[in-house]
Design goal:
Layout (H helix, E strand, L loop, with lengths): L1 H6 L12 H10 L5 H14 L3 H5 L3 H7 L6 H19 L7 H4 L7 H10 L10 H9 L9 H11 L5 H14 L18 H9 L12
Helix pairs in contact: 2-8, 5-6, 9-11
């Protein structure tokens, strides 16, 4: 993990937001969608809707139009309105800081809740998205058959708690910009000797790579 840290020392949440509520909306929009696309939509969205009440003051069809360029926009618009209604009814319009309470909100799963508590409230959390799952399995930290929850538990055991959030962001950057799903940069990867999939890829190209055990 030190190697990844040197590669991406300033890894951070790339979803643009100004407060926890906006982050929650952005995280919900980012499901099966890139952060870059979400960031193109949220400036006008957040200028128009500032509080939970604002999202409920317009018809569902209007909100759908506002986020139409985002994948699954119909379901996401519905979940955003449901979440806002729940925030007003049960939390005084304020986003709860507890992960379990966040997971009670429509459209907020465990990964999203972990992102929110970590980024918005500064609490240690390890959110496992597709990048984190892919990278840890390629590097042999986790098994290919491990579920998202299995990956999270493994990382929580192997990474000191005070480094959970930092590790989450660095693994995402490593997977997003280097160890990509379709075209990983294996030839120039400093972790190639730790990566079982990378070694297979390189072997097919006629290269021999020694194997080591990764230390977190």
């Amino acid at each position: 993990m030190e190697t990844i840290g040197r590669m991406f020392p300033h890894a951070h949440c790339e979803l643009h937001h100004r407060n926890p509520f906006e982050l929650a909306i952005a995280v919900m929009l980012s499901a099966q969608c890139t952060d870059a696309l979400v960031n193109r939509v949220t400036p006008s969205l957040f200028a128009k809707y500032r509080e939970p009440e604002d999202y409920l003051a317009v018809p569902l069809e209007q909100l759908q139009q506002d986020i139409r360029s985002i994948g699954l926009y119909r379901n996401k618009a519905k979940h955003i309105r449901q979440m806002c209604a729940r925030l007003i009814a049960d939390y005084g319009g304020m986003l709860p800081e507890d992960r379990n309470e966040l997971m009670k909100l429509p459209g907020i799963g465990r990964k999203s809740a972990n992102v929110i508590v970590s980024v918005a409230f500064g609490k240690p959390a390890l959110a496992v998205d597709t990048h984190v799952a892919r990278v840890t399995k390629r590097l042999g930290i986790c098994r290919w058959k491990d579920s998202v929850l299995d990956v999270e538990k493994t990382l929580m055991k192997r990474v000191p708690k005070e480094k959970w959030s930092q590790t989450h962001h660095r693994l995402i950057f490593f997977g997003r910009y280097h160890c990509k799903a379709q075209s990983p940069n294996c030839p120039e990867c400093p972790l190639l000797d730790l990566c079982r999939e990378g070694k297979k890829r390189m072997k097919k190209r006629g290269f021999a790579v020694e194997g080591k055990k990764i230390e977190l």
